[in-house]
């Protein structure tokens, strides 16, 4: 089985690249046609565009391509959690001037959290405190 | 190669660039039916000619085919004014209005300016190389179309293409990848730049701009050329009938709506949209919507191109000889004598009775006593007096550095320190002692040695 690599500093993905990466993360691995099939209804992306974007992702080192038949199968190399962690750090750094509390405050003030989600957040906070 | 040759070539290049810019502007104004692709090819042909003129003309012999227009203006050129304006009032102004540039005096400023320009050029080159390196690191090559590599980059907002000796490249922003039709049009446009040779010519124009930095016409030409390149690309895309002009115009607007003024690109790249002129996009769309194929005959194109190129060549040729080497006084004098008819015979209708030989280092020209003696060339009277072997004499220092001496004079009409023109009357031939024929003894000294005056006179008097 292919071992998933974690990248030290994955390069920022554009909106459309992230969209396709999300599909690949969900599917585990996929060819161009499968990715197109998984696009939301009304999202019109040409076969060549998807193929090009997947090749760009390959160039960025976040997916690997394997020849299969006439086409390629793309496998994510970048782990979703790693990218999320990197993206959060990036947002904290760029938007909240490196102050994570400011981001949490904005999140709590502006995003409606259900009781279950609030409990989950509390659990995460207590786990973090215990770890220290 | 001396500094003067370089300076002369630089001046010829600037004159050629100015003539080319004005000529192209006049051509565009007079022949509005010329299509953008023909106009672009005319720009390139004229640029090639201007460069060739600057490189080759200074290497031509001084008297190649015809004398260039540039020469030291002297009283000979204004002789028709002698009766109108009194000689004394006329002298100073004309002598000072010489068109020969003193390259020796300007050499320090020239070297300093050249070094500053070199530093500026290197700085620009380094900045462009750095920008390109960063962009290449953040781009992915997704395709090869012939010899052209297609790169997709997140950091750029405007597509552009560039050429390097290692290969041709097209860089497209990642945001356009999901718009397949727009992407195809953009790639076709950028490939057309390579096909037309715009990307290679851009390097030539960068060097020309750098060389002609103080010349505003070069900057105007650059700006106009950038527009013509885009018009020609648009005409090729629309003329190819692969896409409708309206769809292509929509594509231009789509790309232009990106906030892309700070989009990085090297200076020697042709961008899809230029933001220097706010009306250029409107003009491009108007032009492509009104596009008509081949509205002017080929013979007409050829005629206009020939006329324009001949004019540029003639103007550039007329600029040769503007710079003379002050370190080579002898050749400077020769140029003045041979090229400009600057030198005058000291006596009209005289007869050479004794030539220049080792023991007679001058020229004896016989004429009747009282015949007027003229200055050989323009200059300043540095001595006036009399000596035992020479009788009354006048010595003149010329602009070229040569000195002339006129012996056996009487009725001297010039004072020491006075400026005289070429051919100006300085005195008359003195009455000789009995048994001796009246004559002028004329000496010419160059590089501190006496030379044969006959070699430096325009023609034998009748």
Mind explaining what this structure looks like?
The complex is a heterodimer of chains A (132) and B (462). Chain A is mainly alpha-helical and 132 residues long. Chain A folds into 2 domains: 15-79, Arc Repressor Mutant, subunit A (Orthogonal Bundle), CATH 1.10.10.10; 81-131, no CATH class. Chain A is built from 6 helices and 3 strands, in the order αβααββααα. Chain A has helices at 15-27, 32-37, 47-60, 80-94, 100-110, 115-131; strands spanning 30-31, 63-68, 71-76. Chain A has a 3-stranded antiparallel beta sheet with strand order 1-3-2. In chain A, β2 (63-68) and β3 (71-76) form a beta hairpin. Chain B is an alpha+beta fold and 462 residues long. Chain B is built from 11 helices and 17 strands. In chain B, strands 8, 9, 10, 11, 12, 13, 14, 15, 16 and 17 form a 10-stranded antiparallel beta sheet that branches. Chain B has a 5-stranded mixed beta sheet with strand order 2-3-5-4-6. In chain B, strands 1-7 form a two-stranded parallel sheet. In chain B, α1 runs antiparallel to α2 (36-56), α2 packs antiparallel against α7 (216-239) and α8 packs antiparallel against α9. Chain B starts with a helix and ends in an 11-residue tail after the last strand. In chain B, a hairpin with an 8-residue loop joins β8 and β9. The interface between A and B is medium-sized, with 16 and 14 residues.
């Amino acid at each position: 089985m292919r071992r998933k690599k974690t990248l030290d500093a994955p390069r920022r993905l554009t909106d459309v690249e992230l969209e396709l990466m999300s599909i690949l993360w969900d599917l585990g691995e996929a060819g161009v046609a499968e990715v197109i099939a998984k696009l939301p209804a009304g999202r019109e992306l040409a076969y060549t565009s998807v193929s090009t974007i997947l090749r760009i992702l390959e160039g960025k080192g976040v997916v690997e391509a394997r020849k299969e038949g006439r086409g390629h199968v793309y496998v994510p190399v970048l782990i979703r959690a790693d990218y999320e962690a990197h993206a959060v750090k990036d947002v904290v750094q760029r938007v909240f001037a490196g102050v994570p509390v400011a981001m949490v405050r904005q999140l709590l003030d502006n995003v409606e959290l259900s009781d279950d989600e609030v409990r989950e957040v509390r659990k995460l906070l207590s786990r973090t405190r215990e770890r220290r | 190669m001396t500094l003067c040759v370089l300076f002369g070539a630089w001046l010829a290049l600037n004159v050629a660039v100015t003539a080319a810019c004005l000529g192209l502007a006049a051509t565009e104004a007079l022949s509005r039916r010329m299509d953008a692709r023909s106009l672009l090819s005319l720009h390139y042909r004229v640029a090639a000619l201007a460069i060739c003129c600057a490189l080759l003309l200074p290497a031509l012999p001084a008297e190649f085919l015809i004398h260039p227009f540039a020469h030291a203006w002297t009283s000979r050129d204004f002789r028709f004014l002698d009766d109108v304006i009194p000689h004394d009032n006329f002298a100073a102004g004309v002598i000072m209005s010489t068109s020969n540039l003193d390259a020796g005096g300007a050499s320090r400023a020239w070297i300093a300016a050249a070094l500053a320009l070199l530093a500026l050029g290197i700085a620009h080159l380094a900045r462009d190389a750095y920008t390109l390196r960063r962009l290449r690191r953040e781009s992915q090559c997704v395709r090869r179309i012939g010899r052209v590599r297609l790169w997709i980059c997140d950091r750029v907002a405007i597509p552009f293409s560039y050429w390097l000796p290692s290969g041709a490249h097209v860089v497209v922003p990642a945001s356009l990848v999901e718009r397949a039709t727009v992407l195809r049009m953009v790639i076709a446009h950028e490939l057309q730049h390579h096909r037309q040779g715009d990307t290679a010519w851009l390097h030539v124009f960068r060097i020309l701009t750098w060389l002609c930095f103080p010349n505003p016409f070069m900057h105007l030409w650059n700006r106009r050329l950038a527009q013509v390149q885009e018009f020609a690309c648009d005409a090729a895309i629309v003329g190819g009938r692969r896409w409708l002009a309206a769809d292509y115009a929509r594509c231009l607007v789509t790309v232009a709506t990106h906030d892309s003024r700070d989009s990085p690109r090297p200076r020697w790249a042709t961008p899809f949209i230029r933001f220097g002129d706010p009306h250029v996009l409107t003009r491009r769309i108007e032009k492509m919507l009104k596009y008509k194929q081949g509205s002017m005959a080929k013979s007409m194109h050829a005629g206009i191109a020939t006329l324009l190129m001949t004019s540029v060549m003639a103007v550039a040729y007329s600029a040769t000889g503007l710079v003379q080497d002050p370190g080579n006084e002898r050749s400077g004098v020769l140029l003045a004598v041979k090229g400009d008819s600057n030198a005058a015979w000291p006596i009209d209708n005289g007869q050479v009775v004794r030539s220049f030989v080792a023991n007679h280092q001058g020229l004896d020209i016989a004429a009747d006593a009282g015949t007027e003696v003229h200055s050989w060339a323009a200059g300043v009277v540095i001595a006036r007096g009399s000596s035992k072997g020479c009788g009354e004499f006048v010595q003149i220092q010329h602009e070229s550095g040569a000195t002339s001496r006129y012996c056996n004079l009487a009725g001297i009409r010039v004072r020491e320190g006075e400026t005289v023109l070429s051919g100006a009357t300085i005195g008359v031939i003195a009455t000789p002692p009995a048994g001796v024929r009246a004559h002028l003894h004329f000496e010419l000294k160059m590089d501190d040695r006496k030379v044969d005056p006959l070699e430096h006179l325009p023609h034998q008097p009748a």
